[in-house]
Amino acid sequence: MNREPVSRELFDEVMVPNYAPGAIIPVRGEGSRIWDQEGREFVDLQGGIAVNCLGHSHPGLIGALQEQSEKIWHISNVMTNEPALRLAKTLCDLTFAERVFFANSGGEANEAAFKLARRYCWEHFGPEKNEIISFRNSFHGRTLFTVSVGGQPKYLEGFEPAPGGIHHADFNDLESVKKLVSRDKTCAIVVEPIQGEGGVMPADPEFLQGLRDLCDENDALLVFDEVQTGVGRTGHLYAYQMYGVVPDILSSAKGLGGGFPVAAMLTREKVAASLGVGTHGSTYGGNALACAVAQKVIDTVSQPDILKGVRARSERLRKGMMDIGERHDVFSEIRGEGLLLGCVLSDQWKGRAKDFLSAGLEEGVMVLVAGADVVRLAPSLIIPEADIDDALSRFEAAVKKLTA
After folding, report:
1. What are the residue ranges spanned by the domains of the chain?
2. 387 neighbors 43 (Cβ within 8 angstroms)
3. What's the Rg (C-alpha) of the chain?
4. N or C end: fewer C-beta atoms under 10 angstroms in the chain?
5. Residue 274 and residue 365: Cα distance in Å, rounded?
6. 97 neighbors 153 (Cβ within 8 angstroms)
7. What residues are designated binding site for N(2)-acetyl-L-ornithine?
8. Smallest Cα–Cα separation from 224: which of 93, 135, 127?
9. Residue pLDDT tens, the chain, 404 long
10. CATH pick for 71-301 out of 3.40.1370.10, 3.40.640.10, 3.40.50.880, 2.130.10.10
C-alpha cells in the first residue's frame, strides 16, 4: 500500500492542471470545522461549495452509508434497487415531480434535463422546435452541452464548435427573453432561481413568473437549475417553493448527497414519457449507496425546524457580514437567500474577491468567491450559532489585515 507523504506539490506532479487548489490539504472534518495536515483548525463557510449541507462527519449520514454498504453497493440499471425507489418516491411526495431520473452530478442532471426538453418537443411538435434560451452569467455544468447553455463564454473557449440552437438573454430582464422566444422554435427556458457562480444574484419573483407565462404561451418547458439552491439551501426545500413558480423540469445535486456524489432530475409524468427505454442513461445513476445517503439527507433537511433554522442562521450571518462591511467599507451589499449569500465588494475592492478568500484562510475561516467581485458563503445548514460567531470574528480579523 502506497503511504508516501502527500503534499500540495504532488498535485502538480500527478494531476491535470485544470484546478489551482490552495496550499492546505484538509484531512478531517467534524460539523462545521476542518483540520489540515498540520492540525490547523478552520471554520468552514464553504460547505464544499454548497454540498456539505449537514456539515462534516454527520452521524446520520455515516450510519446510512455504513448500513447500506453492508447490503449492496452497485447493480447497474439492468435492475432497480430499494434505496433508489424510496428516494424517488420521497422526492415526488415533497415536490411537484411525478418522475425522477438519477445521475451523479449537477452537470449530468442538467444534461438530462436539456436532452429531455429537446426530445419532448421533438416528439410533440417536430424537429424545428429545439432552441434553448438561457441567461448571461449562468452556470449549468461542464459538459459540452451544459457549458454551452451556461452564459459564461470563458468556459467554452477552446472547446468549440458548441452545440447549436442556444440563445442567451439578460437575467431579470423579461423583455430580453421576449425578443428571443418563439412558439415554433423554443423548446425550453433554463434558469437558476439564484445565479450561483454568476455572483449570487437572486431572480425577481415577477421575472420567474414571466418566464412561466412565456413558456405556457409558447408550448415551451421551464427548467429550473436548482443544483446550488436546492435541498434547503434557501430555507425552503427547493427555491421554486419560495417563489411560488413551478417548473416543468428541475435539476438537483450538490446538497442532495451531503457530500456523496448523487444528482436527480425531477419532472412530470407527461414530460418524462419522452425519455423512453434506451433514450438516456447513467451507469452509476441511482446507485444504492448514493441513494441511501441522499434519503437520509432529504429526511433530515425537509424537517420544518431545520428549514426554519436555515432562515435564522441566514439572518445572523447576513447581519454579521453587513456589520463587517460597514465597519471596514468593504461590501456594498449582501444578497442571496438562506445560507447562499453573496457579499458584493465595494468599488475600491472590486476584482479582489480571491484576496478575501486567502486572507480568511490565514485567519482560520474558509469562504468562497462567486466571480471576482463577490465573496460567497454556503455553510452547513445546521452550522451552530457559536461557529457562525467564531467565523465572523476570524473573517473580521482577516479583513482588518487586508485593509491595513
Report:
1. 8-57+304-403, 71-301
2. yes
3. 21
4. N
5. 47
6. no
7. 142, 282
8. 135
9. 667 789 999 999 999 999 999 899 999 999 999 999 999 999 999 999 999 999 999 999 999 999 999 999 999 899 999 999 999 999 999 999 999 999 999 999 999 999 999 999 999 999 999 999 999 999 999 999 999 999 999 999 999 999 999 999 999 999 999 999 999 999 999 999 999 999 999 999 999 999 999 999 999 999 999 999 999 999 999 999 999 999 999 999 999 999 999 999 999 999 999 999 999 999 999 999 999 999 999 999 999 999 999 999 999 999 999 999 999 999 999 999 999 999 999 999 999 999 999 999 999 999 999 999 999 999 999 999 999 999 999 999 999 999 99
10. 3.40.640.10
**C-beta of residue 262 within 8 angstroms of C-beta of residue 228:** no
Query: Which residues is 267 bridged to in the sheet?
Result: 99, 249
Q: Which residues are bridge partners to 375 per DSSP? A: 343, 369
Other CB atoms within 10 Å distance of the CB of residue 144: 14
End-to-end CA distance of the chain, in Å?
Answer: 48
Q: Cell digits for 302?
A: 425537509
Edge to edge, the sheet with strand 249-252 lists: 99-103, 263-267, 249-252, 221-225, 186-191, 131-135, 166-169
Q: Does domain 8-57+304-403 have CATH number 3.90.1150.10?
A: yes
- C-alpha cell belonging to residue 69: 454498504
- CA distances to 10, 229, 308, 337 from 312, rounded to whole Å, are 42, 17, 7, 11
User: Which residue ranges are tagged as binding site for pyridoxal 5'-phosphate?
Assistant: 139, 225-228, 283
Which triple of cell numbers denotes residue 310? 436555515
Pinpoint the alpha helices (H) of 131-219.
144-149, 174-178, 205-217
Residues annotated in a binding site: 139, 142, 225-228, 282-283
Per the CB < 8 A criterion, the answer to whether 68 and 87 are in contact is no
